[in-house]
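Writing this down once: the sequence line spells out the residues, with the fold written below as integer tokens. This is how one looks:
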Amino acid sequence: MSFRKCIDDALGEGSLTEAQAKETRDLFDEIEADLKGKMSDAAATSKAGSDTFSAMQHKIAQRKRQKVLQLRTWQNISKNMNDYRDMMGRSNPNRAVLAHFDQDGTSKFSSVTQRQSAIEGVAFGEMSNILATFRRNLTGEVRQKAKLKDVVREIFGENTKDASARELAQAWKTTSNNLRKRYNRAGGAIANREDWGLPQTHDMLTVRKAGAAEWTNFIRPLLDPKKMIDEQTGLAFSPQKLEIALRDVYETISTDGMNKVTPGGANLSKSLANRRQDHRFLVFKDADSWISYQDKFGNPNSFDTMIAHVSNMSRDIAMLEVLGPNPRATVNFMKQTLEVRASGNQAAEKAVVSTNRKVDELYMAVTGANNSPSNAFWAQTLAGTRQVLQSAQLGAASLAAITDVNFQRIARQFIGLPQVNTVNQYLKLLNPLGAKEKGELAIRLGLIAEGWTSLAAGQMRYVGDISGPEITRRVADFVMRASFLSPMTNAGRWAFGMEFLGFLADNAKKSFNDVDPRFKKTLENYGFNQETWNIVRATDLYNDSGATFLRPVDIINRTDISPDLANSLGSRVLEMVNTETNFAVPSTSMRGRLALTGDSRPGTWAGELTRSFAMYKNFGITLVNTHLVRGATQPGIKGKGSYYSNLLISTTIMGALAIQLKEMSKGRDPRPMNTEEFWGAAFLQGGGLGIYGDFLFADLNRFERGLPATVAGPVVGFADDIKNLTLGNLIEAASGKDTKAASELIRFAQRYTPGSSIWYLRSGLERNVWDRLQEWADPKARSKMRKQERKYKRDYGQEHWWGKGEALPERGPRLENIFGE
């Protein structure tokens, strides 16, 4: 009986649907056509039938497995919705659904963002020697570029005779393979291929500019068709199918995936478990071929490619583990479940409409869909503009970050960690001596590695946006490092994380009921109980120079428990550490970004305006989503009052210290602290809204902006300054007025020159560069400087310890000025 007849019979018997029968026929015809000419027709038909049968068995088995995993996911989500209690102790399925995407302070289950961070931590820990070798320097450059190329060659199987490069290549292979296996356990089907080297990146604009013919002709000879396997079927690509596949790849790259979108259709319905393998079938012949393609159409920096692959895989694995093999279907399940539960209750139905809109926003955020630019040129241009503004305006942000010491204290106190060594550990990790070794240990433990992997990571705390051209990101990154914001952020995160993991090791000998009540409560908040804690504490401890830690990766690698349980517990421990670290060193969150920008896309008017509005407001929103929410969850009025009073008083005091440090960095004496206005500004500074504290003293902020312009954001202010500098001066000149164009140009350059606000350089630059230029451009500059000094004395009670226009200071800051007159 022919294979086609078998298909027809199966269709008639009902064992195959019409769609399955068509899929099977199409695959059989394709394989048969490819084999004919290579063997006799009869042999080709026979082998095509055998191969088609094997491929369809493979696909059917995978679909069944994914269906089981999907149903299991929906059962877990339904349980979470039933068990969830909000900060008032009430059942709230709406908030429970949202908490699956990003934590909310009361959920005891994993969210996608928490899981992604944990998976990244484990992966970066496995390749910690790669990060330590190639971590970025002060200027944002990847170190040891020559060795990096040797690593690429070793990854592709070449022998460079460099043992160190071979070891680093093996670390990459181990990391990428472990990510592949974890992806598959969650429902994926990426085949193991020993010869797989590195993923490729594609520059959409460059590919689009080249056109389909040039791109295809360039990449075709670089590929190895014999290794091009269709991982959905396990069969090799035929030459005809390869050409079709390359055309499809070109369309996908050049349209940023929009060729997959059907207007009005369910455009993201394809299983994520199947989509990831679509990106792996391009196989380059060797390292030179891969490098050649990356130089022309991608990113030649292989370190960035590795980091991006780990981040992308971590995101996709997190989505599979939390939302199942088909996250889009799970999103629909969540929304429909809420609708069914609310049916017949008008108020509940209205709440569900709002929740479902937020669900879509959160889903777009975790997938990155709302970060895909509508207009790539304007998105890149304005993102680069924001980077330049940040590099010019955040040079003193590290002085504001002194408040981290207090947030560390509060976070440690809350979970029962020792507080006496907080500052000491902080300073140890800030010490440049042995920084590489201490950083490598932190990353081996699974702790956050942003400072070693990302450009301009430090500014994420205040901006939440590190997109833009590489040159502007490097400029911003340099300022963040040079001003010590990035090192301080890293030190704070690592100090807290290492202390937490050491604390876990110290408590491993104690039963669940014997640990500190605060720590027990923390464990319960993350879903641990006596049974799971006993499993966790039975893990062998990690020893480094006499210090012991309980590493999450060691839980994940245990073989005495099931892989699923090991993954779940190890990941949850690291999620707990990372989430508590965000309380100790507040940073931007996905919820915070969405609260400010919604689902607007870059490259649109709405998207760019909201991104300008959001600048420098993320930190304050983060405090709302962390400490303020945590305070609201404390039991009773006494518990809430105790947490909030501790937070309010201590953050205000630290805000006052930050204000005074910044004032002295500007060449002025500290502000008198005996006024209500000062303490109001200190309160706002401690809460991350220091710029609004300026309006308690004057109608203009530190950038000489009014409140409306401050709310609109720095990009709007920058555009207004350009308008005044150009069009405004032209109008004044046409009216016969003195434009003072030279003086205004100098002020513009002073305000927007990258690095000009670095706190330890600012006064020297102002006095010896900008003041000198003003004196050259404006004969009345000296008298204006004296007038400004008198105004500060009259309005704020401050004198300048480094007088305007003076090459050197006459004295140091007068600290007694804090007491006022």
